[in-house]
Amino acid sequence: MRLLVTNDDGIDSVFLHKLAAALVAAGHEVFVAAPRHEQSWVGAAKSRNRPVLSAPADRGLGCPTWTVDGTPSDCVNIALDHLLPRSPNGGPTVDGVVSGINVGLNASLGFIMASGTVSAALEGALHGLPGIAFSQDVTVDAYDTLKANGGIPDADLLATLGISAAHAARLVPGLITATPPNSFIVQNVNFPLPCTPESRVCRTVPAHLKVPGLFTPKAEDGTHRLLFRAGDDVSPAGLLTDRAAVASGWISHTVLDYTALGIHP
Question: pLDDT by residue (tens digit) across 218-230?
């Protein structure tokens, strides 16, 4: 398959590199277009009020690679319309858009809606293509260590990441085949920590998560700063949610069907 790969953690993310390498090793034709800098929690934002720079970038991924000085949605729009080869009728020539692997979960309504990773996959769906988002659970300590080490995972996280990337490469063909063209469906996959070769995939629904209190009180200079909170899970009993599956050591697979918005049961 021909795949556009992107993320929201930036072009230098090891998580992105592991995913691209696994897809290339599986025999797929891969194109990478990723943000020049981290763009976490920007959702589906577009860079409306400034020019956006794209440029070839050699990151040793074994495939054509570009940086885009914008959001994940910018990356997908610009890559599909201007960077990748075009078909004779002018349309994109890739089979799908694969986004990730994200540093941290993109599970629950409280985080899916804000995710640059999920929104990049949605941008593929808005072009009529299958969109797949992959995310990797990390502990707070592992995240802090990752940031302190300049984005380099410790040995345990790197081992899990390699396994998760292998799962992703295995899952991609089936997920793309299962997603009809022009369906406005995003396949959202979250890997547990640790992830093992035996970790099974479970179909889940997004957890119902309230996420209040994300900013500090006003400081003396009048500013507020973002705080990370896991949120408050108010999911109805009896649902196998994405967060519950990952907490049980399973790979969560949620189908995000955007055509179902506003439809009453």
Answer: 999 999 999 888 8
